[in-house]
Write a structure and sequence with these properties.
Layout lengths: L10 E4 L2 E8 L7 E5 L4 E5 L4 E4 L5 E5 L2 E6 L9 E4 L14 E9 L2 E4 L4 E3 L3 E6 L6 E2 L10 H19 L7 E4 L5 E8 L2 E4 L4 E3 H6 L3 E6 L3 E2 L1
Parallel strand pairs: 6-13
Antiparallel strand pairs: 1-2, 1-5, 2-3, 3-4, 6-7, 7-12, 8-9, 8-12, 9-10, 10-11, 14-15, 14-18, 15-16, 16-17, 18-19
């Protein structure tokens, strides 16, 4: 469905792939700013180049390299994701249509997210990890025109996500910085970042891709 008026937060198809609108610049030739949901790649387009889609129960899609299925019949879980499809924010909340939020805690029928929002259970769908049987994969507008290159890129994203999950660091892991000889223990894991005992912070992705930081003791596996 083509859009006469584009709204921030809408799910849309652009060049056959699922995107989310994050900003509108009315005076620009390409006024719609969005990101591809599967990997957060940012793109711009015109309104006549996109098609609207409204996410619903039992839709599945790739989000940041992993597959999820939307469920309205399951409860949110701590550290899991929700998507806010019917936003009704309170005075102190700051969320809008189709926001992805991570659950921090559950209390009195509401979800408290890591972004300090309180979301009622009627406002969201639960994002259940994996593509569940009977779900509709909405990652592409038309599955019949997916290129081999797109299929290969999707496989790489899924494989990299599984690899990152398998080697996710734990509290107490010891690393050495080969640049300066510092040996440090991970004392805090804050979502996608780790904090070492000497105060240095680094993202988990950068930690595993770094040529400087090498593991010398992993709590789950013992010494190297």
């Amino acid at each position: 469905m083509k859009l006469l008026q584009v709204r921030k937060g809408q799910f849309v198809y652009y060049q056959n792939e699922l995107h989310k609108v994050y900003s509108i610049k009315p005076l620009s030739k390409k006024s719609v700013q969005m990101y591809r949901i599967k990997d957060m790649k940012q793109v711009v387009s015109r309104a006549d180049e996109i098609d609207l889609y409204k996410p619903k129960h039992m839709d599945s899609f790739m989000f940041m390299g992993a597959m999820y299925t939307l469920r309205q019949d399951q409860k949110a879980v701590v550290d899991g994701y929700i998507i806010i499809t019917k936003p009704d924010p309170g005075y102190l909340d700051h969320y809008s249509l189709n926001e992805f939020e991570k659950v921090d805690k559950l209390k009195d029928g509401s979800v408290y997210t890591t972004l300090n929002n309180t979301v009622g259970e009627k406002e969201f769908l639960v994002m259940v990890p994996k593509e569940e049987p009977g779900s509709k994969n909405i990652s592409y507008f038309d599955d019949t025109i997916i290129t081999e290159h797109q299929q290969e890129e999707d496989k790489k994203l899924l494989e990299q996500t599984k690899k990152n999950a398998a080697i996710r660091p734990s509290l107490g892991d010891m690393y050495i910085n080969l640049d300066n000889g510092i040996k440090a223990m991970i004392v805090v894991i804050d979502q996608d970042e780790v904090v070492f005992g000497h105060g240095e912070r680094i993202t988990i992705t950068d930690l595993f891709e770094s040529d400087s930081w090498n593991p010398i003791y992993i709590t789950e596996d013992g010494e190297f």
